[in-house]
Design brief:
heterodimer, A: alpha+beta, Arc Repressor Mutant, subunit A, 3 domains, 22% strand, B: alpha/beta, Amidase signature (AS) enzymes, 11-stranded mixed sheet, 15 helices, 37% helix, globular
Chain lengths: 435, 474
């Protein structure tokens, strides 16, 4: 009997930290839409003689993220040089971490119950930004060093995913955690959270990793990474079924066509000639300090979900709240303001999203909504009915036409106008998933 | 009046012969002015540089810079030469390589900044082995520097330009850098005082990196008391160098003339190499006897065979070099990689190989392990003695051309400085005699951050010897 092909997916996630200064110099780290090469110094330009001095706040952020992802922390750590040539790399090497990352062996539990193993979380520096253009009629590449040396945390997962949906759930969870820790804006479209997916296929039941992997780079939204994964799964399955092994390569994603395309073949592993960065002494982290950071971590989505459900809040509500850093934050503030758990959850879910960033506005809205209120139970009922009555929409959505549910949102809101469209969309999506 | 003027002017023509303390004294008493002192050195440089090639850049605007100097500053108006791998904003910094032939420093190294803040006048940049790769100054892309004691001979290196400049009185003092011998060995060959501080005592910020884990800038001077004065200015913690020591530097000149009676000195018998000239050995033994005259006790001690350091140093240094030179890709500044000369290419290739996958454990990691053994060997030795003495170099200066086709020339000539450099320890080389008109250097090593003890012993030695006052005939 012919077995099914099953994806093996793992991630490398880069998160740019929102520290005041860069990783190894005093230049501002916030480079978004700044005039090119205005936030540079000898260190991040890699001028002769310049030396890196590590940013303690960035290291703290990295360790906190590791702790939030359930990692062990290396109390003795160090930086290493990763040597390679590229015009966006000012020193000819990137300062990164090789065999003693700050954080290793963590795990993240997803709402579905799936547990994802985190291989490591380490600290490094961002590269400069290349822009290809034309100057005096010649094709040229411009280099903007504002981004050179911005603190970057890299999260590496084990190849634990066998479907795109779990992968997206995980990536969103990471974004929420990063935002909760307030260490980065984690905005995908601004490049402060960047994803690289490693995808290959094996036959169901196999445990060994396939002999190849395809890396998908530079995808800047969850929607596109989802499309890219789905496309890649189909493409590789087709190749495998025709008896070929997909090439080991890096592929990009064409947003317009919705397909991935080959960028460069990666037949050999790069030899980065890692060695300990001699300009930075080894870093010792105090266990007391680590424990202190650990104890001060905010409540994380997984714990919050469990807590809400145990207090009688519905799964859907719990998921909706825990899938957004701002909602979690505001929920916690309501609790601090002596709101009852169920009431707070209800309020967070029903409150229009444009009021969510201000606690007073939420409370005011609560006071004035009075009888106009549509409670979550009603939403659930409306959603369940709509899903039951529209199986075509459900199947369209499941086959990737996610726009299909907008018709349901419209019709439900026509029945009961006081429901936030975003909340409704999420409840619908979860409803479909749970069907 | 006429007579007085001629006496004064003749006196002022050889101001370049002064040391820091003398010059400072005359400046404070207003016997001379800073521009006069600077002019005297500049004239000396212009006179001798065509012959010696000690300078890659002569800062003729130094006179103007010295005109309004604040005389209360500790180095007010003192002309100092910088090795050409030390950045001083607005001045060239070539590291004696064609790659950086037209490169102008965009910022001040911490050393240059501290010197300038102390009132020093940067009089020029001195020649060196290209990228500091060598011990002859013969690998400079701008031609070799010649030894002022005999121009058929090399000055040593890589800080050969600084050593020759001090030796020939082309400046009042100079700064060199040492990775393994590059201050002490040229000091030995040129007969000057060369002080290599503990790794981390003097900031590396703004110094073109050679081997980051051992690079140490230090003073190259006419005598020990000047070395203490200059070290005082450049030493100390620097927030821009993560490897710089957080501890405060002590007052190096204070009590420099303390008696050294009771000091325990070890003569490293393993540094009296087989095949070494008997004359060198007897000069070192004479120096040991001088220390005994000064009241110190001298005993022969055993250290790890210095030959082991060659392997360790070669691996670590080549590895770091291969990475440190990667930024010189010619994209943003400097010339392209084809401008690297043979020696740099050789080191880049060897280092790249040593760091490659599969070889790292065999080479780099192993070298680090042996490095730890060398550190421990010194720690053990310093349990029984305060200082260790021995020859700085296996012999006197070698003739011009000696380093050609000798890829390991530097390592052979630096073999006696490499162990302490690898261990990060401080050391000085002071002249202790001459053989056929060429100086012989005595090195004094201490445990980490014990610079003061070295300075006191070397000062005491120079107080009863005149080798450091023996000047070349030029």
């Amino acid at each position: 009997m012919k077995k099914n092909w099953q994806p093996v997916i793992g991630f490398e996630i880069h998160v740019e930290l929102s520290t005041n200064s860069k990783m190894f110099c005093g230049c501002p780290a916030d480079h978004f839409s700044k005039a090119p090469n205005t936030q540079v110094c000898p260190v991040c330009l890699g001028l002769p003689g310049a030396l890196p001095v590590p940013n303690a706040v960035a290291i703290e952020s990295c360790v906190k993220l590791g702790l939030a992802l359930g990692c062990n922390i290396n109390t003795s750590s160090k930086f290493d040089r990763k040597n390679y040539f590229y015009p966006d790399l000012s020193k000819g090497y990137q300062i990164s971490q090789y065999d003693q990352p700050f954080c290793y062996k963590g795990k993240v539990s997803l709402p579905s119950g799936k547990v994802v193993r985190i291989t490591r979380v380490h600290m490094e520096e961002d590269t400069a930004k290349l822009q290809h253009g034309e100057l005096d009629g010649q094709k040229v590449s411009f280099i903007d060093f504002n981004r050179s040396g911005v603190p970057l945390v890299e999260i590496v997962t084990e190849p634990d995913f066998d479907n795109a949906r779990d992968a997206i759930d995980f990536l969103k969870e990471i974004q929420v955690i990063v935002r909760l820790l307030k260490i980065s804006t984690a905005d995908m479209e601004k490049g402060s959270m960047r994803l690289e997916a490693n995808i290959s296929m094996r036959q169901e039941g196999e445990t060994a990793l396939p002999g190849y992997k395809v890396e998908i780079k530079n995808v800047n939204s969850f929607r596109f990474i989802n499309k890219a994964m789905e496309y890649e799964i189909q493409r590789q399955t087709k190749e495998l079924e025709s008896g070929k092994t997909p090439a080991q390569e890096t592929r990009g994603f064409d947003e317009n066509k919705g397909i991935t395309f080959s960028q460069r073949l990666k037949e050999l592993a790069h030899d980065y000639r890692y060695f300990p960065e001699p300009d930075i002494p080894p870093i010792e982290l105090d266990t007391k300090l680590i424990n202190d950071w650990k104890n001060k971590l905010p409540e994380l989505p997984e714990a919050l979900r469990k807590q809400l459900v145990s207090r009688g809040v519905s799964q859907i509500k719990a998921l909706t709240i825990s899938s957004d850093a701002l909602r979690i934050e505001m929920y916690n503030k309501l609790i601090q303001n002596h709101y009852d758990v169920n009431k707070a959850a209800d309020l967070i879910i029903n409150c229009p999203s444009d009021l969510l960033n201000d606690l007073n506005k939420i409370i005011d809205w609560d006071k004035t909504r009075q009888s106009k209120q549509v409670d979550l139970k009603t939403i659930d009922e409306l959603v369940n009915r709509a899903l039951k009555e529209n199986p075509k929409v459900v199947s369209d959505y499941k086959s990737g036409k996610t726009q299909a549910i907008s018709s349901l949102i419209g019709s439900i809101r026509r029945q009961s106008g006081n429901i936030d469209a975003q909340v409704l969309k999420e409840v619908l999506e979860r409803g479909i998933k749970n069907l | 009046m006429v007579i007085l003027w001629s006496r004064l002017s003749s006196m002022k023509t050889d101001l370049y012969r002064l040391d820091i303390a003398q010059a400072r004294n005359k400046l404070l008493k207003k016997e001379i002015s800073a521009p006069e002192l600077v002019r005297s050195c500049l004239e000396r440089i212009h006179q001798l540089n065509p012959k010696l090639n000690a300078f890659t850049y002569i800062n003729d605007s130094a006179i103007k810079q010295s005109e309004h100097i604040d005389s209360s500053l500790p180095l007010a108006g003192i002309p100092i030469a910088l090795k050409d791998n030390i950045l001083s904003a607005g001045l060239p910094a070539t590291a004696s390589s064609l790659v950086l032939e037209n490169y102008i420093s965009q910022y001040d190294s911490t050393v240059a900044k501290k010197l300038k803040d102390a009132g020093a006048i940067i009089i020029g940049k001195t020649n060196m082995d290209a990228w500091a790769h060598g011990s002859s100054t013969e690998t400079s892309d701008f031609g070799p520097t010649l030894n002022p004691h005999n121009t058929d001979y090399l000055p040593g290196g890589s800080s050969g330009g600084s050593a020759a400049a001090v030796c020939a009185d082309m400046c009042i003092a100079a700064i060199g850098t040492e990775t393994a011998g590059s201050i002490r060995q040229p000091a030995s060959w040129c007969g000057i005082t060369g002080f290599k501080p503990t790794y981390g005592r003097v900031s590396r910020y703004g110094i073109i990196a050679m081997a980051s884990s051992t690079d140490s800038p230090g003073p190259m001077t006419k005598n020990v008391s000047d070395a203490a004065l200059l070290l005082q200015i450049i030493a100390g913690n620097d927030s821009q160098d993560a490897t710089s020591s957080p501890s405060d530097a002590p007052d190096y000149s204070k009590d420099i003339n303390s008696k050294i009676s009771g000091l325990r000195i070890g003569l490293a018998k393993d540094y009296l190499l087989p095949g070494m000239s008997g004359q060198v050995i007897s000069l070192i033994r004479n120096a040991a006897a001088d220390f005994e005259k000064l009241g110190a006790s001298v005993e022969e001690i055993s250290l790890m065979d210095p030959q082991y350091s060659i392997g360790v140093y070669t691996i670590l240094q080549r590895s770091e070099v291969s990475s440190n030179l990667a930024r010189y890709d010619g994209i943003r500044f400097g010339k392209g990689r084809d401008s690297f000369a043979e020696e740099a290419k050789r080191r880049i290739m060897l280092g790249t190989y040593a760091l490659s996958a599969g070889y790292y454990d065999q080479f780099y990691r192993k070298a680090q392990q042996v490095r730890t053994l060398i550190v421990k060997d010194f720690e053990k030795a310093f349990k029984n003695v305060d200082l260790i003495i021995g020859p700085t170099s296996p012999g006197t200066a070698l003739p011009v051309g000696a380093s050609k086709n000798q890829p390991m020339f530097g390592e052979m000539e630096d073999v006696l400085a490499e162990p302490s450099s690898i261990a990060g320890l401080p050391g000085v080389s002071v002249p202790c005699g001459f053989i056929k008109g060429l100086p012989v250097g005595l090195q004094i090593i201490s445990s980490a951050f014990n610079e003061k003890k070295i300075l006191q012993a070397a000062y005491a030695y120079q107080s009863i010897t005149n080798w450091h006052k023996t000047k070349p005939q030029l």
